[in-house]
Amino acid sequence: MRRTLFSFACALAVAAGPALAQTQGVSKTEITVATIQDLSGPLAGFGKQARNGMQLRVDEINEQGGINGRKLVFKVEDSGYDPKRAVLAAQKLVNQDKIFAMIGHIGTAANMATFPVLFPKKVINFYPLTGAREMFEAPNQNLKFAFSVPYYDQTRTGTPRLVKEKGAKTVCSLYQDDEFGLEVMRGAEDGLKTIGMTLAEKTTYKRGATDFSSQVAKMKAAGCDLVVLGTVIRETIGTIGEARKTGYNPTFMGTTASYTDLIHKLGGKAMDGFYSTSAVQVPYLDDTSQPIRFW
Predict the structure, then answer these.
(1) Which of 80, 81, 117 is nearest to 96 (CA)?
(2) Is the residue at 108 inside a domain?
């Protein structure tokens, strides 16, 4: 998250001319930005890390003189991973605190719910913590700045690859019943089509759920040996833990939403063998070492 603020600072440094001083959230001495995080709900492990990382970077920027002489004012609100609370937080930040930009807002549904609050006031949505395609697609593309490889593309490419690697015969998907989960499931579906397969079972859970016994039972009954998860932290641990407890041991694959050391720290040995997709920067081949070029 410090990199998120660094990228934002670089962008502002380029733009911070006379016109910016007439923009909401920007004065001659300050630039007001904000984030909405889950500090009390199922994604609090992510949310607290994100908030702390951004606060560290804001402090560094201000200690170094700010951005073109303007200090950053950083506001934080807690959504509890609830889109309704996210909307209330956005209304406060946009209409009362007069922020210039929303930075690193967590959650697909929460972000999408706040767009009607942000965009009419020309408030930027910068590097949201979600890989949904809606974070960069039209409308309002000039106000959307995303950094994550879409969940859809993660599972579209990752699922058929893992099928071949593991020799999987039957694939299932368990996903959150909102825009986040649907992106994961749709990517898996389209990826399987490329190798002549379909999802044998699709099952969902409500945001904030803690019991996954019925979903695990469905996938076990379907004989799925590869399960694509549209889950985050608590749901990933709960699903895999329930499966292990019942003697059901398929290959589990998640997305960047579950690409965190918290899975093993909190879930323990039961999480061994869990796969999760991520994205890395591809180095330029003309100025890298031979071992990297070979890789």
Answers:
(1) 117
(2) yes
Phi, psi values for residue 229, rounded to 5°: -105, 125
pTM: 0.86
Please provide residue 252's backbone torsions phi and psi, each rounded to the nearest 5 degrees.
-105, 135
Domain span at residue 117 reads 2-145
Give the residue-averaged pLDDT of 268-293. 82
Looking at the 3D structure of the chain, how many domains does it have?
2
> pLDDT-based confidence at 14, cuts 50/70/90?
very low
Instruction: Give percent above pLDDT 70 in the chain.
Output: 90
pLDDT for res 290: 77
Please check the confidence at residue 7 and state whether its pLDDT lies above 70: no
**Coil/strand/helix, residue 197:** coil
Q: CB burial class (10 A; 0-12, 13-18, 19+) of residue 48?
A: middle
Question: What is the C-alpha separation between 32 and 71, in angstroms, rounded?
Answer: 9
The H helix count followed by the E strand count for the chain is 10, 10
Give the CATH number of the domain where residue 169 resides.
Answer: 3.40.50.2300
Same domain, yes or no: 124 and 219: no
CA distance 6 to 205: 36
